[in-house]
Amino acid sequence: MDNRIRVGVVDDHPLYRDGVVFTLGSQPDIEVVGQGASADDAIRIATDHRPDVIVLDMSMPGGGIDAVEKLARDHPTVRTLMLTVVADEEQVRTALRHGARGYLLKGTSGPELVQTVRVVSQGECYVSPCLAAKLLMRTSLASTRAEKQTDRFSDLTPREEQILSILVEGRSNKEIGNKLDLSEKTIKHHLTNILQKLQVRNRVEAALLASGRMSQRPAATQ
């Protein structure tokens, strides 16, 4: 079949590599055109055979990430599918950032491996469901934390926002009161409310939190 998916398999564990080669090679629409055990082998296979997909061990000699980066840069038509024993979300993010098109755990089934190779060969991305769930959960938690932090400031009144902006300048309660024509006692009352709403322990933490918020705002255009 001329339209078979051409695949290279690179893993430094011969027994596992043989299993992957057998699983993929037994499919009528897949042809294994090369195999190796290192990052250098991956580059050689890409250069000599120009496969559609290279199935690559994440932790092989020479560095799986380095190989992915070189393949993405020098052989952009070759799609890389990473295999690993470690269910690490940061590794997934790093691999995808460097050009990997898929990420599977080595405990995956033969049918899932075959289907993933087919998906990746079409230019689509695929991540093991358990890893994808972890990535989504972490992203969701990060988003929730950011929203909560934003909500802290949304609870402030205009007067409290005004006092907080002056507090960032390092002013004392008396100085803030003089600037706003308010009593020191009134400023102290407002500051107590500000600390509670921002969920911080003291005025220093409040000022640091406000400074960080101000630094994230886009600069005003001229």
UniProtKB/TrEMBL annotation:
GO molecular function terms here?
DNA binding
What domain of life does the UniProt record list for this protein's source?
Bacteria
Domain (Response regulatory): residue spans on this chain: 6-121
Query: What region holds the HTH luxR-type domain?
Result: 149-214
The cross-references to PROSITE patterns, in alphabetical order and at most eight, read: HTH_LUXR_1, HTH_LUXR_2, RESPONSE_REGULATORY
Coiled-coil intervals, chain numbering: none
Q: PTM 4-aspartylphosphate: list the residues.
A: D57
Q: Mind listing the UniProt keywords for this protein, alphabetically? A: DNA-binding, Phosphoprotein
Q: Which InterPro entries match?
A: CheY-like_superfamily, NreC/VraR/RcsB-like_REC, Sig_transdc_resp-reg_C-effctor, Sig_transdc_resp-reg_receiver, Tscrpt_reg_LuxR_C, WalR-like
Gene Ontology BP, a term: regulation of DNA-templated transcription
Record-linked CDD domains: LuxR_C_like, REC_NarL-like
Name this protein carries in UniProt: DNA-binding response regulator
Source organism per UniProt: Microvirga aerophila
